[in-house]
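[User]
Um, tokens okay?
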Amino acid sequence: MRVKRGLTKQRRHKKVLEAAKGYRMTYSKSYRRAKQLLLHSGQYEYAHRRRRSSQFRTEWIKVISASLTEHNISYSKFINLLNKNKITIDRKNLAELAVHSPESFNAIVKSVA
């Protein structure tokens, strides 16, 4: 007996087109194009979730480096001094201190320099 997939196919297509809503041109209208686009967007999404943490670290380093310019010390020398003095504080917290409480950050810089 032959199986006609009318309702199942409609539901699957509807779900894909619903997910592709807002995309340009035929990517939101045509099932074939929409499915292709969703597959690729899923791959990009996965890869970028992996890359996000390193991007945050880069931002923290930029913030710390910018706040060290008033002390005339480079970022690499500062991190080296932190390690030599056995001060274990991560870059995220250092960046938070540099932005939200500069006096605490200045105290850390003076303690290592």
In short: Helices lie at 6-19, 31-68, 75-84, 91-100, 102-112. The CA atoms of residues 59 and 108 lie 20 Å apart. The mean pLDDT is 93. The chain has one domain: 6-112.
